Amino acid sequence: MGRPSDTLGDMTTPEHLDVVIVGAGLSGVGAAYRLRTECPGKSVAILEARDAMGGTWDLFRYPGIRSDSDMFTLGYPFRPWREAKSIADGPSILAYIRDTAAQFGIDRLVRYRTKVVAADFSTETARWTLTLHRRDERGDVETRVVTCDFLYSCAGYYDYDQGHDPVFPGIGSFRGEVVRPQFWPDDLDYAGKRVVVIGSGATAVTVVPSMAETAAHVTMLQRSPTWMGVVPGRDKFADKVRELLPANAAHRVIRTKNILFSLAFYQFCRRWPKAARKVLTKLSTKVLDDEAAIREHFTPTYDPWDQRLCAVPDADLFRAVKRGRVSVVTDHVDTFTPDGVRLRSGRELPADVVVTATGLRLLAFGGITPSVDGRRVELSEQFIWRGAMITGLPNFAVCVGYTNASWTLRADLTSRLVCRVVAHMDRHGYASVVPTPDRPLARRPLLDLASGYIQRAVDAFPRQGDRGPWRVRQNYVLDAVSTLRGDLGRQLVGTPRVLPASHGR
């Protein structure tokens, strides 16, 4: 694969690349590997707005940060996870991403402090023109331009610059420290202090038991319970298989087992929600040994997988509650006071530190608003094809992971699909391709979960349809078959490459 130059083009003579990847996180590194191995000879660059590789795993620094999926499926299929723990901590995942990039030369493709602020596709030239803000080490920003044949957004769908930040009455009067997990201060000292964590999602479930190790006491304050699944931090089956088989073969066996188990459990929850409620409740009760607490604080009104299930590795949250290091309170914030948080019930929770784990904000394509021939494309009016390409946007793909399984499972399939599309274009002499349905589609949300952070942003994303490749299935097995072997020509409309007038003379 051709290596891009180290300097971006200026406004008059822009550099041209075959493929531009936006984002140097878990997905972007995996995408670059696939393009390097399956589309050799293509020039590729990864544009990263931040100063470092790793995406989410470099940005988030809150205590206890970890994966909520097993690393045999969250890791790359082409580089087996070799660490002992199946549920890994953030620094280990970050090191894994960076080591992978270094091993395959992907780190040399990354251009840091380079943010895409505009992307326009020209139907005349069949190229994307990307306007970039490039920040130097002093913080000065200059505008550059680069063009590319294919644009692949691997920036995820979270807003890295700001989270969901509800307004709490009286927060200005609080004499303690208010901390947002997304912007965790390096110098925060909470040892021996009283901590209140507002929230009950994945971040809160991670932060609470970790802070409880040194804090005087931690209270998890939630408006309503969240379904939680107790999972082992270390996979005994994986340990045994790795003893018996070579590393690559063991990885394939473990990965396959975990994929099938997670898919089966998801289908069980969706088809038999009452039975799933009983199973999850029984597991939580077995660890906590307090049926009243389980009913009040750990039994949601919604069914499992109406919202994403929170993983509790080695039951650490429940064990912290059982030891008295953590309390769970289900109530609403009435107002902050100088010394803590007063609840709607009238109870006051004393606090020295309050952590607002109130959720993230979604942001489509890393904040890029794509346009075609200078006209903005309204994403909410478009449909997504095979969970990757979008109507109205030629030569464009977006990486969106599963909501019911490891992000990387679909991310890797999408990257392999992009490689197939690029090869398809070369094989048929197409300058551009765009997915186009053969008949009208019923409109459904792209991310079909009831979670608040998804519902708040539903209109910022394209829709999924009601059939075939226009549906975003939460089924890796079916997606793997259709993505790697499905016919591309039926839904991809191609525009032939126009040869110069002098060609053949």
UniProtKB/TrEMBL annotation:
Cofactor section: FAD
InterPro entries hit by this protein: FAD-binding_MO, FAD/NAD-bd_sf, Flavin_mOase-like
One function term, GO molecular function aspect: NADP binding
Keywords: FAD, Flavoprotein, Monooxygenase, NADP, Oxidoreductase
Superkingdom to which the source organism belongs: Bacteria
Family of this protein: Belongs to the FAD-binding monooxygenase family.
Protein name: Cation diffusion facilitator CzcD-associated flavoprotein CzcO
